[in-house]
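Residues pack. Consider this:
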Amino acid sequence: MSTDNVASGARDALDGRAAMLRDIREEVAYTRHEIGKDALDARVMAAVARVPRELFIPAPSRLYAFANGPAPIGHGQTISQPYIVALMTDLLEARPDSVILEIGTGSGYQAAVLAELVRQVYSVEIIAALAEQARESLAQLGYDNVVIRNADGYHGWAEHAPFDGIIVTAAAPHIPPPLIAQLKPGGRLVIPVGLPGCIQQLKVVEKRADGTIQSRDVLMVAFVPLTGALR
């Protein structure tokens, strides 16, 4: 590939990322009454700006990389729309010293955004080919604070619990009890709940210091189903 083509590709990616960030801000403004805020955390938006989303999408589908919608990543799975990735990350309220569990690694994009913000990310992916693909992509980009396991995410990752936050990138018909058990008091679980083809609610579940749970609905969403123990 010529130097001119490389430079042109880099400019296109920068322009695409800038347009994506504008779309996220517009979507936040449009849904501000549902999500309860006028803007997402500046740290989250900066992380989204840094991560090369296009490199987490298979080459044939990269024309969808910066569109504010889901994009296919193979194996019947999708990468969530940028607005939803940014919103779910924001809702975690993670700190730089946080240890986060992600259920549903997919291509690794959400894990990369989290890795920009926290100390450690543990991510579980049930599809072996996607888990391996995500490992390779994250390693090539230098994200050494993400560990990926090929397993059924319904059960979480007890060896590394408790977690400061848990994020689930597929819809479950109910909140998996193992994830509640692995959440640290004071931590948050962000998860879409509902059946495929039906109304799904993006929920924030907070675990109080005394171990009791408080849940609130944030936004109606549409996710691929969480598979494994739920089938």
